[in-house]
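Can't paste images in this forum, so I'm doing it all in text. The chain is below; anyone willing to post the predicted C-alpha cells underneath?
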Amino acid sequence: TNSEATNYNVDATVDNAACEYNIASSAAITTCGGIFVDSGGPLGEYSNIENQAITIYPDNEDEYVSLYFSEFELESPTYDNMTIYDGENTSAPILINGVGYTELFQQTIYASPSNDSGALTITFTSDAIVTYPGWVAEIGCTTYGPCFGFDVTPIATYETDIGTSDASAYI
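Text version of the structure:
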C-alpha cells in the first residue's frame, strides 16, 4: 500500500509488508518495511553499466533504518560494487565501502544513532561485462533506547591494594 513501492497496487486494501523497492525506480523512499532489491528485482540479475543511488528514510522521527541482506552476490568489487552511507546523501560518513562478492550476505547494516535523519544512502555501480544475481535486503527500522550511547561518570572506585583499582561504581 506504499505508493513509493515498485510493486504498488492502487487497489490494495491491506498492507501485507510485501512492498518491493527497486534501486532503479526511486531516488528516495520512506519506509520501515518491505524489501530493497537491485534493478533485476528479487529474481533477476542487475544490469550492466549501472550507476544508481537511493536514500531510504525511516517512517518516524527517532527511528533509524536497517537493512538485512538475505541475498547478496555481486561481481568483484573492482567491477561492480555497493557503498552504504550513514545519512541522506553521499557526503555522509561511509558505513560500508565498495563491497562486492558475497560480503553483505546475511549481514545487517544500521543507521547510527548519531545520524540525525536516521536514513541510509546506498550507491551501486556495475561495469559493462558481467552481471550477478544482486541483492535482496529486508528494510527495517530500529530505535536506540536511553541506555545506548550515554556517558557515565564514576561515583566511587574501590581498591584492595593501594594504587590498584578493582571495581568502579557508575551512574
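The CA atoms of residues 21 and 36 lie 5 Å apart. The chain has no helices and twelve strands.
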